[in-house]
Write a structure and sequence with these properties.
The chain has three domains: 258 residues, 3-Layer(aba) Sandwich (Rossmann fold), CATH 3.40.50; 125 residues, Pre-protein croslinking domain of SecA (Alpha-Beta Complex); 174 residues, Rossmann fold, CATH 3.40.50. The chain is 45% helix and 15% strand. The chain is built from 24 helices and 22 strands. Strands 15, 16, 17, 18, 19, 20, 21 and 22 form an eight-stranded mixed β-sheet that branches. A seven-stranded parallel β-sheet has the order 3-4-2-5-13-1-14, sandwiched between helices. The protein has a three-stranded antiparallel β-sheet with strand order 9-10-11, covered by helices on one side. Strand 7 and strand 8 form a beta hairpin. It is globular, with a radius of gyration of 27 Å.
């Protein structure tokens, strides 16, 4: 046996040996405390050799040995050791499970253990984060740790040459935005499909002539192991939005723009409900038979169209009556940019498909951009199922265990807190109108601000954040407003949310992944208070917002506010909203606790969305099979 593997380990049962594994890691770490760095590197090389010789990376002895190296490398780099709960989460992920760790428990460093274990296997580890900023930050932070163990770590660049991307993928551990891994897979598939099958004998002829075998060298050569940060957001919240790779825009748009403007003019002449019906629950517009006849009569005779005229008009109706500015999209110097409905994040590189993006541009009076034809598409669930091994971490997996097990064969393992939680969850307050709700929020924030307690106000939309920020300013309160763009400035602003008298208004998950530390004196004031302006369709998003306070044993409090005007109720439970209005007093307040009704509503929405996600996977698989049969190949 290799020298480093000779350290005796405790005999353990097969059912639950994680606690004993942690004890073994601590014992091995103590033996490494006085060792020179060269010993860490040599031990890591021995482990790599053992794995290449056939040892399972997730076996007890490899986990103990690698875990000890990771703990010691982190201690030497940062000056502290991982908590036992971080080791527990790292072990569970290394074994292919989802570690549910509360917000602020140190998921970034925890990922170093499974990344190192599987990085030593030499097949590459992809560590996907929610955006490029976090991928860059985490890679830079942990690269010295990996280097101490002889492991290479690279950042997967966006909008880069294939050569730079291949360099990133050649590393033992590759950090990147989760969607970029998917797009690189699509780029490879599009290139391989366009190349077609090699002619019979082509490879042998090239070999006889001493030339390289013709063909395309994939950007992403393998998909062995993937660690997904915020895995519920990636595999569940964003699952209904497929990854679509587009080629460059083509052609002159002047005549196309004329068609869009004509369609918008025609849509504004239609009447509801005679010509169309707005179905708010499904965010769709249903055109009646009379409406179809009206649309046909309104078609201009000499306008170039790229798709049927009725589609143009339907898109114009959808852009006018379904999509809201500063809710679903923003307009800035870059044009129309989409907003993530779950986080409020602005996406610079996403567009609406099938001409709908251009319909929004026409609605806003902006120059119309050319459509980018789709080259390849895959739903996110199917892409991540392509990995040999998948694991992840999040603070909010509970409630979706069945879906993770059924679709991805992933078990959710709750990880205990390193320190007992001191979060105070205040009762949800209910109101008849949005105006009454905003007034109550402003009054509560003003009182806390006067006492010096910092407050973070989380909104569902950018529009809400701007309205509340303005009302707080009118009340004489200085506000730090975040616009949903994830960058260093936003992360620094969120980090300052725990300072005395700080009032931060932001979309729900702005600055996610940023540690909010309490300034001196804030603990005595109750810690950071989080105000949730509106409940989301998924209770997990509400829990994520609440998790911004009372981290790592700090004190803190959170409270949510609900009005009958909220989108959750207006779209999914209008009768419940009417009941709320009847229960309100003269000031618009509702004394009764309606939380059970909200929870039942969220549960019913989650069930419906779960079925939609399953249907999306089936449709994606069916389309892939049809394309494969047409091309005479087996899909990847």
């Amino acid at each position: 046996m290799l020298q480093f593997l000779k350290v005796p380990s405790i005999r353990r049962s097969r059912r639950d040996d994680v606690g004993e594994l942690i004890g073994g890691i601590r014992a091995r770490t103590a033996a490494l405390r006085q060792s020179p760095e060269t010993q860490l590197l040599e031990s890591s090389r021995e482990l790599r050799s053992a794995i290449l010789a056939g040892a399972a990376p997730d076996s007890a002895v490899i986990l103990e040995s690698t875990g000890a190296l990771v703990v010691e490398a982190i201690r030497r780099t940062f000056g502290f050791e991982l908590f036992d709960v971080q080791l527990r989460a790292g072990i569970e992920m290394a074994r292919g499970r989802i570690a549910e760790m509360a917000t602020g428990e140190g998921k970034t460093l925890t990922a170093a253990l499974p990344a190192s274990v599987w990085g030593l296997a030499g097949r590459g580890v992809h560590l996907g984060t929610v955006n490029q900023y976090l991928a860059d930050r985490d890679c830079q932070q942990l690269r010295p740790v990996y280097r101490m163990l002889g492991l290479s770590a690279e950042l997967l660049p966006e909008r880069a040459s294939p050569a730079l991307k291949r360099k990133a993928y050649s590393a033992d551990i590759t950090y990147g935005a989760g969607y970029e891994f998917g797009f690189d897979y699509l780029r490879d598939q599009a290139a391989l499909w366009s190349q077609g099958e090699p002619r019979l004998g082509q490879q042998m002829l090239a070999a006889l002539r001493g030339r390289e075998t013709p063909g395309y060298t994939p950007i992403q050569p393998r998909r062995a192991m993937c660690i997904v940060d915020e895995i519920d957001g990636v595999l569940i919240d964003e699952a209904r939005t497929p990854l679509v790779l587009s080629q460059g825009s083509q052609g002159d748009v002047s005549e196309y723009e004329a068609g869009l403007l004509a369609a918008r003019h025609a849509s504004l002449q239609l009447e509801q409900p005679a010509d169309y019906v707005l179905e708010t629950r499904t965010s769709q517009i249903r055109v009646t038979r009379q409406g179809e006849e009206a649309i046909a009569r309104l078609q201009p005779p000499k306008v170039l169209l790229q798709r049927p005229w009725s589609v143009y008009v339907r898109n114009a109706l959808h852009a006018e009556f379904i999509l809201e500015r500063d809710v679903h999209y923003v307009v800035n110097e870059e044009g129309v940019q989409l907003v993530d409905e779950y986080t409020g994040r602005i996406f610079a590189d996403r567009v609406l498909r099938s001409g709908l993006h251009q319909a929004v541009e026409a609605k806003e009076g902006l120059p119309v951009t050319a459509e980018n034809p789709s080259m390849a598409k895959i739903c996110r669930q199917r892409f991540y199922l392509l990995y040999d091994r998948l694991c992840g971490m999040t603070g909010t997996a509970t409630g979706n265990e069945h879906e993770f097990k059924k679709v991805f064969s992933l078990q959710v393992v709750p990880i205990p807190l390193a320190r007992p939680s001191r979060r105070q969850v205040l009762p949800t307050q209910f109101f008849a109108t949005e105006a009454a709700k905003y007034a109550a929020i402003v009054a509560d924030v003003a009182a806390r601000h006067a006492a010096g307690q910092p407050v973070l106000v989380g909104t569902r939309t950018i529009h809400q954040s701007e309205l509340l920020a303005e009302q707080l300013r009118q009340a004489g309160i200085s506000v730090n407003l975040l616009n949903g763009k994830q960058d260093l400035a936003e992360a620094e602003a969120v980090a300052r949310a725990g300072e005395l008298r700080a009032v931060t208004v932001a979309t729900n998950m702005a600055g996610r992944g940023t540690d909010i530390r309490l300034a001196k004196g804030v603990e005595e004031l109750g810690g950071l208070h989080v105000a949730g302006v509106e409940c989301h369709e998924s209770p997990r998003v509400d829990r994520q917002l609440a998790g911004r306070c009372a981290r790592q044993g700090d004190p803190g409090s959170c409270q949510f506010y609900v009005s009958a005007d909220d989108e959750l109720l207006q779209v999914h439970a209008p009768k419940f909203a009417e009941k709320m209005k009847r229960l309100a007093d003269d000031q618009g307040r509702i004394a009764r606790d309606l939380s059970p009704g909200i929870r039942r509503l969220q549960q019913s929405i989650e069930i419906a969305q779960y079925n939609q996600r399953l249907q999306l996977i089936r449709e994606d698989e069916r389309l892939s099979e049809l394309l494969a049969k047409a091309a005479g190949v087996i899909p990847a």
